[in-house]
Amino acid sequence: MTIPAVTTNFSAITKDATAHWQNITAGTKAWIRIGTALCGKAAGGDDVLASVQASLSNNGIEALVSEVGCLGLCFAEPLLDIQMPGGSRVFYGNVKSEDIDTILNSHIVSGVPVIDKALGYLGEDPVDGIPNLDDHPMRAMSERIALRNAGVIDPYDINQYIANGGYQGLNKVLTEMTTQEVLDEVTGSGLRGRGGAAFSTGTKWGFLAGSGAPVKYILCNCEEGDPGAFNDKGILESDPSTVVEGILIAAYATGASNGYIFIRHGHDGPIDRARAAVSEAYRLGLLGDNILGTDFSFHLEVALTGDSYVSGEETALMEAIEGSRAMPRYRPPFPAQVGVFGKPTNINNVKTMAYVPEIVSKGGEWFSGIGHDRSTGTAILCLSGNLKYTGMVEVPMGLTLRQVIYDIAGGIPNNKSLKFVQTGGPLGGVLGADNIDLVLDFEVFREAGAILGSGGIIAADEDVCIVDLTRALIAFCQYESCGKCFPCRMGMSHLLEVLERICSLKSEPGDLDLMRNIGGNIQAGSLCGHGQLGFNPVSSAIKYFGEEFDAHMVDHQCGTGTCLRPKYSPSLTRRSN
Amino acid sequence: MIDGLKERIANAVQNQSQPTVTILSSLLAVEDELGYIPKEAIEQVSDLMSATVNDVWAVASFYPNFRFDPPCDHQIEICWGPSCHIKGAMGLIEAVLDGVNLTEEGDTPDGKVTVRYNTCLGACAQAPVISIDHNLIGGLSPLQAKQRSVETMESATTHDMDGS
Questions:
Q1: What is the ipTM metric for this complex?
Q2: How far is CA A357 from CA A166, A260, A420, in A?
Q3: A524 and A455 within one domain
Q4: Does the beta-carbon distance from A227 to B23 stay under 8 Å?
């Protein structure tokens, strides 16, 4: 294919966007940003937003108020920051509505930040008496690529994205690069899929590029039913345009004509913000026919699924987009030959797409210089459970899990000790506390029998019963089995029955062998990862905590007392079960 | 039956703004409008999509977010994902059920509150998380959760499923 003529519209778009950004950050008014991603909302971000608006109007203070996504410091939500024109941002964490009047009056009217309530500042000008937020453990080791704009820009304002370097990558590929050069750049970056399978993104794109079909699809997966992972939703809520731009670059490289961003129904924040980013891109001519005046055309929309964990599996996802039951398909044929609506299709995770604009802007070599061995770039981790600091961080691959738990997340609170870590979603299994010297690297995790997966890291302290948690994980696997393969459908129910017996301290001799037998059959007889990996929670728990299983099964005792308390699991299982 | 039910279904199904309209997208549109999938919706979606009632029912019955009778006035969801489990989800479920006088998930007999367990509400860093009428609330103690559920129950004064 020939390189299209240089576009002129893009420079006009960036000029407007830059002037807009200059006006917001260094104009005449203070800029107040409030985190209202899922974590911010759960902490009361909407109440803080309402209080700020009421306080501004009651006190006659002029300021610009924006909702932003997730800065990653979820433990400090609700998080609000104030930037005086041209100055640094000063952050106030765990803000309460009753503090808002004081903060706004002092900071904006008197120009005096409230030091004892401030968490830190970000920016070039130090603020007396307030620490640099970049020195905080949750940020000190960060390398923010996919999260570069998260918590910085208003996700509904495409001009703020463009003013911060947005759509430069798309403009570069359209004006300077052939499709093969884009494929080579992404392959050379070593970027691998962040949805769990860690397959080379450039190679995957090459499969689709090789098809000459006139209609080809790019799908971006934000189903993210993994409990413990919220980084896909976090990116879409914080910086949806970087995902749209990544999809556009993928479409250019592969010759795709249409695309979908796939999100679970009910997650309104990610859905609304993704839809806004798509319609704004259409408005500016960045989506649609003849993008930026070139002969490249691409159409994108947001598609929703109902509640179904398995619909995150790539072929089940295609079924859901077509409006059917989200059940995996047989392979071959592979999606690159026969995908959604029978057309050649490529699927990438939200995180994978979010890296792409920076990779083409800065070059594959830059990206491959970050990270560890064959796991290039960064890991986007969701930290939750018994940790001092919970939230979302982006750090270079190659740090150890121990560094993540103790140096970044601040260790285990309340003078407790770490018992185990659960990584990579419910199918990832657990790692005992003595086994956390693994470096963040897809291969290292795999060899240790764990999964880095989509980046969920859940820490549990000594008060958590591993047998009870295993029961809860298998209850999840049972509830979410789509029902297509009977070894998974029936095996998960059977496993849950055995685990409930063990947790009731009424296990029978041979129950461990019975579970291994069932697990082996589920693994061997299932079409998708749900069944193939669904025994991991049990096998890894037995491996690291055999003695605790013995205590439950032989001595009929639960050391933490958890198993003596009431347990609940859903009564409404999938009707096909 | 709710007044104008058929019209409301028709509006929801026919006014979908996204280009790709499917059985699933149509059912989700009805759920957004009514909070449940009445028999009439199954029929209308099958007409619109030129599918059999059986095809539509197959999709509707697969996704557990769909229900087939009108929901209660208020919905409380309690997350039982592993992060929330570790932070005490079981105690929260016990407290909420106690607050609305249920023994497991489902509807209160007076039609005031529906309680559902959710596999992940997506705010794991604020665990344990519940949602009341789709508003997320993190970090509640069992006592606070019970209080919220009692308040929610008391704030329901009517069974009017029309949403007006």
A1: 0.94
A2: 8, 18, 36
A3: no
A4: no
